Give the backbone structure.
Amino acid sequence: MNNVNLTEEYFEGAVSFEKAEGHIKPWRLPFRELALFPSNNNSLVGCAEMPAGVRIRFATAAPEVKLSFLPVPKTADPLRLDCVIDNDLIDTVALCEGQEEIAFKGLPGKDKTVEIWLSPLMGLSLKSLHTGSRIFLSPDMRKKWTTYGSSITHCRGAHSPAQTWPAIAARAGNLNLTCLGFGGQCHMDPMVARLIRDLPADFISLKLGINIQGGATMSARTFKPMVIGMVKIIREKHPDVPIAIVSPIISPPRETKPNNAGMSLSFMREELQDAVKRLKECGDANIHYFNGLDLLGEADVSSCLQPDLVHPHGDGYRTIGERFARIILPKIKI
């Protein structure tokens, strides 16, 4: 049996790591600077501990791979891990409370690159890989895509980790994903803008609006300037990288009814489109606006949204991912 203790070199899609004796936990914010990302009830940091889009990546010829970790805490929903080979979802396993190891069996008995996609529901401290053959590092050299958004990008309601909409689009487009979807916490924090600026990227997408509308955290006076400011911060280190600004998907109760700050989703889509227009007029040749209704619109409400009429269910996330890959990726020169 070949055993490999996991180190940060085996992870893709993580921003930083919390390291302790014998185990490592990936984070989606800088672990040493978490205090600089304040939010009500520390919710942003809580979301960053959930490894949406993070995967363990390695090469092996082994037909079976075991992964060990610290005991799984009690959760309201079962944690699932996915095994992906050559962008294809091979297997999904569910974790039980107290479990410390899982196995993916029946894998092709030949040289291959394996990705184990971690659950977007809860942080997990990982220990080691165990196989019957040697394990090698297999760095992901594909084009890097950073995507930022709300719970609809975090995708806690997806069927499994590799079936979130960013994961589906990334696998379809053969991209190296970093997912910065934070449930309830997409408020264009300046520190998040700086983080996106500092991450390596060949493509950046910002799916903006729904949390700001739901929380009434900005007004007509501040929303558009904040969008422009976020883009300009990112442009400090990514002057030419394509940036896609994606407006909210359908949410019938919020489409035309203003929130406490006077903003409806239809109004916010107009503001986002105008922000992109202004940036283009001032010389940004590689920023693009996409209407979220093209990803999930009125015709999709009954088949893709949960009863809250805000969040997609698993099939809805799949629809968004497939449409993002079909509608948006071909228009972006990466």
Q: What stands out?
A: The first strand starts at residue 2 and ends at 5. The CA atoms of residues 40 and 185 lie 9 Å apart. The domain at 144-331 is CATH 3.40.50.1110 (Rossmann fold). The mean pLDDT is 97.
